[in-house]
Amino acid sequence: MTEDMWAAVPPGSPRRLLTAAVDAFAGVGYHGTSTRHIAAAAGMSAGALYVHYRTKADLLFQIALAVHESVLAALRDALAAAGGEGHAPRVRALVYAFAGWHARHHLAARVIQNELGALEPEHAERIAGLRRTVRALLRDEIRAGAAAGEFDVADVEGTARALASLAIDVCRWYRPEGPRTPEEIGALYAHLALRMLGTGNG
Amino acid sequence: MTEDMWAAVPPGSPRRLLTAAVDAFAGVGYHGTSTRHIAAAAGMSAGALYVHYRTKADLLFQIALAVHESVLAALRDALAAAGGEGHAPRVRALVYAFAGWHARHHLAARVIQNELGALEPEHAERIAGLRRTVRALLRDEIRAGAAAGEFDVADVEGTARALASLAIDVCRWYRPEGPRTPEEIGALYAHLALRMLGTGNG
DNA sequence: GTCTATATGCGGATAGAC
DNA sequence: GTCTATCCGCATATAGAC
């Protein structure tokens, strides 16, 4: 199901540079990372980087694009698999996929959560659109379940924000060597989410 | 109740530099901020900064200290006010205070959440201790309520982590011009927290 | 496509006058 | 305590050889 997040990036130097940049940005931030470091981690000289990416900012943008498309695909796959089984199972699938994705791809997720402000204005606008789409997916499911009387939610916007926030923040504290797998985290968070929505059977 | 977070910082230049640094770090990150910019925002030349702070890293450390002591004080005040009314009201008070604090002080909170990695090792250890104390406060309350049968929690550690994560992340999306006050966010999050704990009366 | 070398500017931090 | 001037290193990005 989850095909490689970097499938659209040409293998070889472009991809090695991109993944090296993800590691570096996740560790010390965009401004804390030098192009020299990225190039060295990808096994080449500083100058060679600019054959594949116009600027350091372009590198960040390419990461942001790939990452947001990956998370959108994961959410849509989850909804498609859930089908029309009712609102609770659909939200459960959404939160399970969303939280699990942020654990599995915690480094890439951390980059785009922490370094959005470093995007250049035109790049930022493109990314902001993708993010609105993600938030709308969650909010619309909650609104539909509340309208159907399946959820007990007084503040749909605020609760949707809280659910997204909770799942996204997984990428900031998750450690691969920790006690829980991404699937276990997804299951726990889906459970908590349904309780937050007042289904009573979370 | 919430006395000024910077009460321990001498007024005048030291405090102006500190608050200017908070604004700058929150906006473009620690590595994205120059000492020249901080000094200018505080109304002085670049060199004058070093009369009050040894290094840029020291500035970040002083911010981290003040901020963590402020949040600890807020949590302890909340617990003291809640008294022994039962576990649910105590957790409610804790989450209300924690989430509200992260809205009210979202800029300072963002700095210490995003830039912890920029602390120097010895500074980081000191701050890590304060953070453990905060997490323990929350976790112990949840554990006590679960042990008393007042909460229905299968995974105490994971749920405590989720609660803290949810409240902390407020500082990343909160905007003063948004539709909710810090108090409203605190109330919503306390409500959601009790539902997550399975009290049934959240 | 990769290398070495370099242009150019900005960063943190210090020195010394007032 | 603040200023101006400066040291020195590192960063992004480019040029030109291979």
What is the distance, rounded to the nearest whole angstrom, between the alpha carbons of the first and last residues of chain A?
26 Å
CATH architecture classification name of chain A: Orthogonal Bundle
Question: Residue ranges of chain A: pLDDT <50 for 5 or more in a row?
Answer: none
Mean pLDDT of chain A: 96
The CATH topology of chain A is given as: Tetracycline Repressor, domain 2
Shape of chain A: elongated
Please compute the radius of gyration of chain A using only Cα atoms. 18 Å
Helix content of chain A: 55-70%
Q: Look at the helices and sheets of chain A and give the structural class.
A: mainly alpha
The succession of helices and strands of chain A, N to C, reads: HHHHHHHHHH
The total of helices of chain A stands at 10
Question: What profile does the largest beta sheet of chain A have?
Answer: none
Oligomer state equals: homodimer
- Give the tally of β-strands of chain A: 0
Task: Find the biggest chain interface.
Answer: A-B, 33 and 33 residues
According to CATH, the homologous superfamily of chain A is Tetracycline Repressor, domain 2
Question: What fraction of the residues of chain A are assigned to beta strands by DSSP?
Answer: under 5%
CATH class of chain A: Mainly Alpha
What is the domain tally of chain A? 1
Topology:
2 copies of one chain form a homodimer.
Chain A: H1 13-28, H2 35-41, H3 49-52, H4 56-82, H5 87-104, H6 106-114, H7 121-147, H8 156-168, H9 170-173, H10 182-196
Helix pairs in contact in A: 1-2, 1-4, 1-6, 4-5, 4-6, 4-7, 5-7, 5-8, 5-10, 7-8
The structure holds a DNA duplex (18 and 18 nucleotides).
